[in-house]
Amino acid sequence: MRNAWMLMLTLVATTLVAGGCARQHGYGTGGSYREPAFARGLAETNELVDLTVKDPEKAKQAKAILQDIVNESAQSFKKTRDYDQKFYALNANYEATPDQFMKVLDEQNNERMASETRILGLRFKLKALLTAQEWKDLTDAMDKRRSRYMPKKEGMSGGAP
């Protein structure tokens, strides 16, 4: 089960690979700044599908599933922002009770779990579409592409820590 979650997270992370950069350039200024990041991440992942899935019809279906994952991720991000606003309002309310905060936390956690379940279902739909070799080739390519965006860890180059 842990491997399934890791693969799902790898897929989502690769799809949203440029999302982290968007946070540095306008976090909290509205939702539209993330759209280019989602689009870039999806375009890069679609390129990898074209490179690893040779059957054009299967590649088209895989890209549609990836689009669904991006759409779900975007909706989840928007809902998270909405919950943040609810927390800000509660925090500003001197009379807010712990129960009110817990209610919002419960709603947010339930919504997040529902979204992650939908994304996981899409991941398994994609897996069922691809052969084991196509899946391996795609995830390997995604790992390689994603590593370009990951910060280098100190001490990993063999030099002094």
Task: Provide an overview of this structure.
This protein is an all-alpha fold and 161 residues long. It has one domain (2-147). The chain is 77% helix and 0% strand. α1 (2-15) crosses α6 (132-147), α3 (34-52) packs antiparallel against α4 and α3 packs across α6. The longest helix is centred in the middle third of the chain and has 37 residues, at 56-92. The chain is elongated, with a radius of gyration of 19 Å.
Query: How many strands?
Result: 0
> Which word captures the global form?
elongated
Gyration radius (Cα, Å) is 19 Å
The major pleated sheet works out as: none
Average pLDDT, all residues: 81
- Helix share of residues? over 70%
What's the end-to-end separation, in Å? Answer: 35 Å
SSE order:
HHHHHH
How many structural domains? 1
Number of alpha- plus pi-helical segments = 6
**Assembly type:** single chain
Helix/sheet category: mainly alpha
> Which blocks of ≥5 consecutive residues have pLDDT under 50?
4-9, 11-29, 156-161
Strand content: under 5%
